[in-house]
Amino acid sequence: MKEEAKNIVILGAGESGVGAALLAKAKGFEVLVSDAGIIKEKFKTELFENGILFEENGHSMEKVLAADLIIKSPGIPNSSALIQEIRKAGITPICDIEFASRYTNAKLIAITGSNGKTTTTYLVHHVLESGGLKVEKGGNVGVSLARNVIKDEADYYVIELSSFQLEDMYDFKADIAILLNITPDHLDRYNDSITEYGKAKMRIIQNQTADDVFIYNADDKEIKKQLKSLEIKAQTFPFSLKDDTVEGGFYNDEDQTITIKNKLTMSIHDLALKGKHNVQNSLVAGISGRLVELRKENIRESLADFTNVEHRLEFVAKVNGIQFINDSKATNINSTWYALESMQSPTVWIVGGVDKGNDYDELLPLVQEKVKAIVCLGKNNSKIMDAFSDVVDTIVETQSPVEAVGYGYQFATKDETVLLSPACASFDLFENYEDRGQQFKNAVRSL
Predict the structure, then answer these.
(1) For residues 429 and 400, what is the distance between their CA atoms, to the nearest angstrom?
(2) How far apart are CA 425 and CA 216, in angstroms?
(3) CA–CA separation, 243 vs 258, rounded Å?
(4) Whose CB among 65, 312, 408, 426 lies 3.0–4.6 Å from 436's, allowing a Cys bridge?
(5) Residues in binding site for ATP
(6) Residue 86's closest CA among 15, 162, 34?
(7) Cβ contact 235:212 at 8 Å
(8) Are 117 and 177 in contact (CB under 8 A)?
(9) Which residues contact 229 (CB under 8 A, 6 or more apart)?
(10) Rounded to whole angstroms, how far apart are CA atoms 161 and 376?
C-alpha cells in the first residue's frame, strides 16, 4: 500500500467490513462502506456512531473507483462483475486480514482447512491463553482481526482463514501457518476444481521464511499433491494419524505424541475432544504450544479441559436418556463424515439444507453402521432420500427444527443419540448455520 493512500472503500458491511472500517478510521483514513444489500442494524449503528460514511442497497461506482485502496468482503467472488470492473480500473482489492496485518507486530498464527478450522482456532487460542500468553482469536470466526488490531494488545493472534480470504491476501505473512486438510468444498467458486481450491488454501504459506513454521496434515492426499509443486521455505512440522516418524506429532492406537522439544505423550481418552478428527486438532494445538515454549503440563491440562465451539459437535441436552448433539456447523460432507465417525451409539441423523454438489456415497458405510433413522430438514430432500433409502428404513421429511427434533425424540430410545449434522448450507430455511443451530437447541430444550 502506498503511504499516500488515504481514501478507502470497503465493500460489504458484515463483521469483517465494519472491523476494517473502524481500523481504517482509527488510522486516519477517509472511509466509505458500501454494501449491495441491507446493512444489519447493529453494524449501521456502529458506523453511524463512529462517523463512518456508508451506503446500502447498491454501490456508487464513481466513489468506489476513486478509492486509493479497496477492501472487499470474502463473500464477493473475484469473478463477479463488480470486482472485474474494479480490476479493469487498475485496482486490486484486498481482504480485511491483509489490511489488519499491516498494523500489528504481534505473532500471527494462521489456520485454514476445509474442516476443523474453527475448532482448531479456538483450541490453539485456549492452549496459548491457558499457558499465560496474551492472545486473541479472530478472522473468519468471532471478532474480525481488524477490530482486535485497533487496540493491538495481544502478543499472538490466532486467525481462522477461509480460502475466500486467502484469495485476496498478497503481503500477509504467517509466523505459524496451519493447514488441516483440503477436501471438496465451495467448488462452485473454483470451476469445480479441487486443484484450484487447493491452490487458494496453499496461499497461507506465501511469504514465509526460514524463521517461520508450517504445520500440515501429512495424511491429506491433496495437500501432498500441492506440496510437490511448491518450494517450502518455512520449517515444517507435519502431523499424522498413520506415520509415527513425522517431525510434528502423531497418533498411535491409544495415544497422541508431540515430538517437538522432548516428546509429549497423552492418552486420547484424556482429550476433551473426541473422535479421530479431533485428535488431529489436538495434535495441531499441542505442536503450536510447544513451538511457543509452553510447558508440557500446561498443554496437557488445556487439551483436557477445553470446551468445544458452539454448533460443532456441541452437546445440547439429555432428555429421558436420549443425547442431543448440535453440529449445525457441518455444512459439507466431510464435516458430517467426522461427526458420524465420532458417534458411539445408534443415531438418528438430522440432515439437509442447500446442497453444494454433495456426493453422499462416501457416507454410506458410516450411515449403514451408525444411523437408525434419518430426519430430513430442508426444502428439497430428494437427493438425500435417494442416496440412503436402501440402507436406512426410516426416512422422514421436515420443514422446521421443532418438527425435526420431535421425530428425533420419537425415533431414538434411551442411550441413543439425535445428531443434527446437516452436510448442507442453511440458507433455505435459516439465516445462517448459527441460526439453524440455535433453533435446534431451542427445540430440544422445549421437549
Answers:
(1) 8
(2) 27
(3) 13
(4) 426
(5) 113-119
(6) 34
(7) yes
(8) no
(9) none
(10) 31
Domains of the chain and CATH, by start: 7-93 (3.40.50.720), 98-305 (3.40.1190.10), 314-445 (3.90.190.20)
277: left (phi over 0), alpha (psi -120 to 50) or beta: alpha
pLDDT of residue 274: 78
Q: Is the pLDDT of residue 219 over 70?
A: yes
What is the 3-state composition of the chain as percent helix, strand, coil, each rounded to the nearest 5? Answer: 40, 20, 40
Average pLDDT over residues 90-97: 96
- Please report which residue ranges of 373-423 form alpha helices under DSSP H: 382-388, 401-411
User: The C-alpha cell of 368 is what?
Assistant: 449403514
pLDDT, tens only, 321-341: 999 999 999 998 988 998 998
Q: Are 311 and 326 in contact (CB under 8 A)?
A: yes
Mean pLDDT of the chain: 93
Residue 360 grid cell: 453422499
* Three-class SS state of 7: strand
Annotated binding site: 113-119
Distance between the two ends of the chain, CA-based, in angstroms? Answer: 56
